[in-house]
Write a structure and sequence with these properties.
6 copies of one chain form a homohexamer. Chain A is of the alpha+beta class. Chain A has a single domain, classed as Ribosomal Protein S5, domain 2. Chain A contains 6 helices and 9 strands; from the N terminus they run E-E-E-E-H-H-H-E-H-E-E-H-E-E-H. In chain A, helix 2 packs across helix 4. The longest helix of chain A is centred in the last third of the chain and has 26 residues. Chain A is globular. The interface between A and D is large, with 37 and 38 residues.
Chain lengths: ~250, ~250, ~250, ~250, ~250, ~250
């Protein structure tokens, strides 16, 4: 049993509140335990210069933490005047993950701007951001379809992410900050609704791991991601049916 | 009657949720109509180098908007690599206003970091930030008192702020974005519970105004601020009694 | 009597030297006591991208202090790589103030760049900058009219600014640095020739002030600004007649 | 057969030139096909402030490409004034990978600065950087041991890295740029001499992959990394014996 | 005869106004024709960290142009957020030149900050800056001597600078902007009162020059610099006697 | 005799390796003693905006040092976020020097990007950069001529550079770092094959020098540059004949 009473293979409670922000085309507040990330998807009716005339769309993601999302206040990157390496790594990961299930051709010459802002952090903010951003994207493209700009949802499959790790020799699903900070191996996994991998990032923190351990961690991640996709499906209701109509 | 059914001298509905963030010593989510600002107060047990040994504390404020707080997505200042003029002006205003009612000597050699993050913007974000930050500060210093670090609350008086303006010749209280963007005169007023002024910033937007109009706007602001302080008082409950025990 | 022998309601000696810089379309060196600010107005025959085709002009202001304008040398913002909050606040104030009396429609699709560089600082640099920039603007637009680019001066009224404050319970006009640094209330006022307010910025420095005090300070400011406008009128000579032909 | 005549599971020719730079404590020029990376390890006899007195050392890595390492000239990050996300991601990866096999306690209160500069790029620059940096680190710590500053090499195991990917349904080892740019799945793998994983980063490029494909790619990577470690072992000669004397 | 009526070997009119700025320890406004540079020397009673305890002083120079010093307004470097190459080159030149005649040992553990701000530019701003900064330095160290902090002036010799160039095959002294901008060869020369060279920077602008031409230009520069030093000597009056008491 | 056994007027051994980088249109690794600089010339088929339609080309140079090119590791400018003054000065010098012998009209509307990256530094990196960049430029424009884009080589003359200086009263050619760091006078000279000067930068390092010493140093530099041009000529082989066909 873990510090918060969970089993090793158990997710924290997950809630997703759709349309949290009135201005955004799509938005979702995702809460995974005490981790809270506000995800918005904004539609811009043009693409970056290097894609003009290419006949397909673009998606780009930004990630940030409020200064007091963390136990100790962290300095704003705007105040420091530049983005840190961790932030850049995470926003690249979010963008890449969403590109795997979004049909940019069907999107047309548009850009989706994804913003993931961590309101409160307790481990797993990047994976919560991906899971929540998926919902915001679905709502943003649904709005486009509703007003006739798209024929069908350009979403090939569900997409969610979670973290797994090895803490004191034990394999754990969905690490809280306390667990994450002492994990010897830490892995972020992004998967689709059909169980395909989009991204695997496994890291030994001054430690190493075997192929067997890798596989065991992936089993655990897959279990958790299926649970997250169940929540997504319930959250989206009728909209869920429009996802993945076009096979991957 | 205004677009949202309010009278000229009526505030929008105001709610303040205390302790919104578990990590922060004090935090409040303030909602003024559709404007939502998350305010946190963080205690650091030291002062900036230029104040070391001076025997009193310091307070500093930062302000930011999430990119999709606004109708059109705005670029992150962290991405642009620098703070804009508007942001700097606002964070200086917030810090200065709080310094007027905070007894820095009683605070001791500590820094209060105030973070005001606009989650959703619909006019009046800077004044909502001041009104909400006041609550976060009270909670942060109360926590210090509870753990014996302070003898009494170093808060001299209540503090709240609102905007007033002239729109199509009419004097209005608590402008929404739609009103603010067409106002010919725009004024932010910060006041204490005893009706003293802390800050008056009146601006003709390509327009000018008379001394009489200034006075009428100030009357309106005073009315609104009294309403806001009533909300603060109700929100704080028992804590309210500890404010202003030391005369200003 | 004040440190420099002035009465509470007396301005420092003011001189304005027109055409101080040979390259600029308009320029003025304004001296208010020991405060010296060099103001230039540069005409650019285009507007920023967001105004193209809008049929009217633009005005933008920049403000800076030479490193040794101050008692202690201050680091250059160019060396630090970014503008400070105080600088941004001041340049926004200067631009906004001038926009109130400049008819941007009559200016045509042109930009006026205002540069205010403090050569020597002894309090009141921002208000001196506004008062001097007004002269530079008049000269720049007069040059446009002389070469037939404008039919009449697009200047609706005179414009000047001063600071007032409360020092040791006394209301003072036109604060020197020594007075300003100990003032409990500090107010910058921008007014037109016809006595209309353009900007009022009153600030309690860790202090508060009453409505009555605000009014008394405004009376004092109005007196001072009338004196400054007298100097402007004398400086401009014949040109003064062309100002405000079009009612505000 | 691949464009350059290799089999799917074949590495490009690899050469490592030790002591390429006379000033550095350790340095290696690694060439993997046409990819050439200059790796240096610099010893600094202190640790960053946050580690002072902690009794162990630190290692930090920087990565850069010369502007004309690439087919099209790329702008210098020094000229743009900031590091890109890709660069930050890579330098974090290199540092993390080396930390997994370096015994920071045995290193003592010292910092190893790793610099990996890509002289010519043809795919796999980050994995070549890790493989080459390992040699530079061994030489730098050997120099410390030779002058008596260390008792034994604080290196727990060999370390090398390669990339694998899926190109037109085929699994390939050690991708050239031409292959990498069209791969649907791209994976970087960092492994130790004893076959343990240090880092696995698998990414679907607008594509997804199955658990079976992941495993097949890992088999291929393991094969390649063994080949690279054979080259490292031959390059180091006698020094190789001192590695991993302390079990991981 | 040149455009402004001068002979080829004639300087423009030169005036130097000492103590132009009341706050600075030394200051001079130098006017060379229409070029006007404000030079200040500020004394700081400490040296940069890398010189602490070395028993001698330091001198460092900064150079800047006001935006409207030039015919076309130039953007502020503070606004662009970084110093340009030309600025850096010039401030390094000014600092280096002054170090050649300043006895840093005699100065003691102090820093002299030199600020050269171009108020109006018409060619030769960097050489005017050196010539004027020399006066500001003499005044700053004289102030130190007067208050007993120094025994004698730590100035080994006079120092002045001018530009020479080849315009349409003709050798010219002290180029105005109009001449400088069409010169095929452009040379800045810094010399001491005893005729020794401190710096020679000769540049062919898309052109080349012979050894003979170099020598002829140096003759011309020497003539001009002697004239400038005569002006310096007259400006300094009695102080001139204290310079170079210690042989170079 | 000098530390490395050279006579005062002797160059260090010089080798130039052409086509060191496969991607670049022209590239050369130049080694002058232990100084190694990698120079590339990249052709871009357009000119900067300010030259569009002007009917001639442009050349621009960048210079950088790898962090461990130096005895002590130097921080990357990309990490610091800005170019230092020394770097800017050097890249301006390289660009200007090459412009003197390149016929920009004959080049057509193209830009040559010159990159000089110091792999290992032991004095004279800027002059080695110029000497090596010349070869890279010749190769780049030769490639343009071979594919018919140019009729003849737009190179008016050979170009090389060296440093000379006064060390302990002795005039030395081609200073190593050890010599350079103790030189009282330091001069960089850029010359053409026909013995014309392109750039002379002589600097007293807290010292001064006479006209006679200047001339002696120039004699020494001329001798060295002739030696360097002999190496260039030998390196270029047949291509050498195409240089300077058009008289300067």
């Amino acid at each position: 049993m873990r510090g918060d009473g969970r089993l090793a293979n158990q997710l924290r409670p997950v809630t997703i509140t759709r349309n949290y922000i009135k201005h955004a085309e799509g938005s979702a507040l995702i809460e995974v335990g005490d981790t809270r990330v506000l995800c918005t998807a904004s539609v811009e009716e043009k693409v970056p210069p290097f894609l003009r005339g290419a006949g397909h769309g673009w998606i780009t993601a930004e990630y940030s933490m409020l200064p007091r999302a963390t136990e100790q206040r962290t300095q704003r990157e705007a105040t420091r005047g530049k983005l840190g390496g961790r932030t850049m790594e995470i926003q690249r990961l979010i963008g890449r993950s969403l590109r795997a299930i979004l049909d940019l051709k069907d999107l047309g010459e548009r850009t989706l701007w994804i913003d993931c802002d961590v309101i409160q952090a307790d481990g797993g903010t990047r994976t919560a951001a991906i899971t929540g951003a998926f919902i915001a994207v679905v709502d943003a493209v649904s709005a486009l379809r509703r007003r006739g700009a798209l024929q069908k949802l350009p979403i090939r499959d569900f997409l969610a992410a979670t973290s797994v790790g090895i803490v004191e020799e034990q394999m754990l699903l969905d690490l809280r900050y306390k667990e994450d900070s002492v994990a010897s191996v830490d892995m972020n996994v992004v998967m689709t609704g059909s169980g395909k991998l989009v991204e695997v990032q496994g890291t030994g923190e001054s430690a190493v791991f075997s192929r067997d351990q890798l596989n065991e961690l992936l089993d655990l991640a897959q279990l958790g991601i299926q649970g997250l996709i169940d929540v997504q499906r319930a959250t989206l209701g009728d909209l869920a049916a429009g996802i993945g109509q076009k096979p991957l």
